[in-house]
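User: Can you recover a sequence for this backbone? Please restate the input before giving your answer.

Assistant: Of course. Working from this structure:
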């Protein structure tokens, strides 16, 4: 088998690797069909480097069951599956409270144990979800980022008829737009400086597109909302600048959800900080994509909405490449060789 292994900043290698074997009774070995490149993968590739030198990378993927341990009963070889990459310890206080997203020992495959940018990978059976026939492999590769997006929206009090602003139209932002519409939002405002991302946002369900290059986003939003703002503002750009600007988007008593990771200090100008206090905003941090019973309603809801067609992720997918092309793809994405939406890598032909 082969895998993409990360050795250092911008040092990603396509290499031969020993195939995983069944060890625990609940092990499931998956033949990876499609693996998606996550924004966090790009940040680690460009800025942070690996947790463990030479680790097989990747955590968004779908595939076919290759083999199962003796205690696994809900899966069999040949089953198409989606995969939850999160490993919670099940023992800490947060896990005992039924909040695995806050696990003291939370880990994700591709960090300290082999991930999904490989011909084969291995997960515990509870992390592997059978796919309905109506969900394609390409769609299934986006089940994990969809679960991330809806995990954040579940923190809010968004109701049908409400309004949402999404600041940053990368993959999580686009999926947040789709989920806001599924939740019943009457108006969704997509904000980004990239016109091509805004076009994808429109295809994913955004009602209004805001480009803040010339006029601040909050000024445009206030004009569109009769000077009120929105019920929920989502920060999904992961920028120190937008992490401050997002506070000017909600209405009084509104909510802010942080899904992006800025990887840098966030300096909040007084104008934006006072919005938190004077408007009595509720601020949520959203981490990971799991809840109890594990892996949580984020996953079952995603599979259900994908299977009915209400959640259509296909407009997001702009590239499908072989796994061998992975190192070049990462380089091209960070140098913006062309426009990239969701990029999928294919370790196996199907």
């Amino acid at each position: 088998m082969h895998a993409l292994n990360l050795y250092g900043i911008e040092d990603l290698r396509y290499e031969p690797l020993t195939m995983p074997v069944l060890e625990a009774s609940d092990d499931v070995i998956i033949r990876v069909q499609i693996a998606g490149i996550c924004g966090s993968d790009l940040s680690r590739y460009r800025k942070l480097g690996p947790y463990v030198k030479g680790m097989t990378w990747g955590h968004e993927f779908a595939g076919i069951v290759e083999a199962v341990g003796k205690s696994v009963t809900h899966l069999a070889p040949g089953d198409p599956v989606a995969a939850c990459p999160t490993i919670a310890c099940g023992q800490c206080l947060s896990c005992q409270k039924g909040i695995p997203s806050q696990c003291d020992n939370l880990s994700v495959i591709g960090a300290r144990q082999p991930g999904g940018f490989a011909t084969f990978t291995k997960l515990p059976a509870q992390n592997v979800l059978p796919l309905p026939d109506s969900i394609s492999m390409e769609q299934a590769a986006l089940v994990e980022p969809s679960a991330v997006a809806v995990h954040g929206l579940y923190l809010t009090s968004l109701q049908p008829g409400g309004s949402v602003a999404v600041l940053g139209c990368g993959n999580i932002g686009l999926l947040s737009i789709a989920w806001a519409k599924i939740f019943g939002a009457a108006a969704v405002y997509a904000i980004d400086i990239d016109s091509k991302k805004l076009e994808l946002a429109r295809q994913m369900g955004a009602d209004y597109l805001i480009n803040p290059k010339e006029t601040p986003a909050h000024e445009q939003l206030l004009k569109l909302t009769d000077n009120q703002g929105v019920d929920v503002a989502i920060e999904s750009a992961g920028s120190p600048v937008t992490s401050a600007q997002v506070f000017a988007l909600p209405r009084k008593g509104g909510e802010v959800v942080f899904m992006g990771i800025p990887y840098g200090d966030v300096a909040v100008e007084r104008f934006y900080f006072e919005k938190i206090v004077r408007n009595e905003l509720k601020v949520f941090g959203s981490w990971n994509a799991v809840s109890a019973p594990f892996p949580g309603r984020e996953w079952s809801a995603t599979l259900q909405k994908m299977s009915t067609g209400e959640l259509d992720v296909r407009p997001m997918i702009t590239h499908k490449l072989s796994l061998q092309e992975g190192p070049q793809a990462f380089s091209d994405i960070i140098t913006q060789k062309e426009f990239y939406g969701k990029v999928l890598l294919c370790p196996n032909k199907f």
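That completes the design. The radius of gyration is 20 Å.
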